[in-house]
Design a protein that fits this description.
- By secondary structure, the chain is mainly beta.
- Helix content is about 0%, strand content about 55%.
- It contains no helices and 27 strands.
- The chain has a four-stranded antiparallel sheet, with no helix packed on it. Strands 5-6-7-8 form a four-stranded antiparallel sheet, with no helix packed on it.
- It is globular and about 45 Å long.
- The two termini are about 30 Å apart.
- The mean pLDDT is about 90.
């Protein structure tokens, strides 16, 4: 069973990781041919990310390491030991601060900050301290981290946790800015939609059956995308379009229009369970590439879109 699926546009590869597997697989995006199968860790792989400006692939595992691979040859370049299991990795090229960092989110609710050029740790954004008295002065997560999202245009780092909280942090100081509360269950998928100045919004999804739409300047959600009957596996935006895609574990996929938040299309993946999905695309107008919604269950299912 495929547990995680990623598409990295700069290298035009699909990456899949199967449940409890120490390997990752790399597929060509147009013909879906298996190109590489890399035995990456001693333990199970939990997350994969592309450090695009360094041409590195980062993989985290429950063996308490993050491994870095050349994104062309997939030769191992470096191994980084970590104090706790890191459940997610996210690269950020902060043009506003002229810094290239990557962030990892742990099972201990702490977010680690690394310099992408040196692969050295810069610091941490600490989570909830259980020894503090229970008041409103604390900021952060009191659960494992579900997802991390940099929004360069707003100089904001967004983190989501299995506690249902979404936290906004300043991208330069990494000090807290705001908390977004509304989810009753864990959140593990964040997406930023900036189709136009009028249609900028943060979207979050997780164990709740709805995707939440947020204006990052307001604490309350502005809309719910309803229509799924099961926990969501993620939310994605189609670049350069007003379309949002959501999918749930039962295989229902919905395409929404961000301008009016109406559902434009629904289809079902014929699988017992869908664990992940991604969108393939190219923002380079000169490249002919098939645009697809790719869903992961026991195998990959490809659906073309316009």
């Amino acid at each position: 069973m495929i547990e995680n699926l990623y598409y990295f546009e700069k290298i035009k590869y699909l990456f899949s990781v199967e449940k409890d597997s120490s390997k990752f697989k790399v597929y060509g995006v147009n013909n879906a041919n298996l190109l590489f199968e890399v035995n990456a860790h001693k333990g199970s792989i939990l997350a994969v990310e592309h450090l695009s400006d360094q041409n590195l692939i980062a993989t985290s595992s429950n063996d308490l390491t993050i491994n870095f691979w050349d994104a062309s040859s997939f030769n191992l370049k470096q191994i980084l030991s970590v104090p706790e299991i890191q459940l997610c990795i996210r690269y950020a090229n902060w043009k506003s601060a002229n810094s290239q960092l990557f962030y990892t989110g742990g099972s201990d609710s702490i977010i680690h900050i690394y310099d992408a050029a040196t692969l050295k740790e810069r610091g941490t954004i600490s989570g909830w301290n259980p020894f503090y008295r229970n008041d409103s002065q604390q900021f952060g997560h009191n659960s494992p981290i579900g997802d991390i999202l940099p929004i360069d245009a707003q100089q904001t780092l967004v983190t989501a946790g299995y506690d249902g909280n979404i936290c906004l942090w300043d991208s330069i100081t990494h000090l807290p800015k705001k908390e977004l509360k509304g989810h009753s269950k864990g959140v593990y998928s964040l997406e930023w939609c900036d189709w136009s100045q009028m249609n900028q919004c943060l979207i979050s999804a997780g164990l709740d059956h709805e995707a939440f739409i947020w204006n990052t300047y307001v604490k309350e959600k502005i809309f719910l995308l309803r229509g799924h009957n099961h926990p969501l596996v993620g939310v994605k935006c189609l670049p350069d379009t007003p379309q949002i895609v959501t999918a749930d574990i039962a295989g229902m996929v919905k395409v929404w229009d961000v301008r009016n938040f109406l559902c434009m299309q629904t289809f079902n993946v014929p699988a017992e369970e869908v664990n992940a999905f991604c969108l393939t695309y190219s923002t380079n107008a000169g490249q002919a590439m098939k645009k697809r919604i790719v869903c992961a269950s026991k195998k990959l299912a490809f659906y073309e879109y316009d």
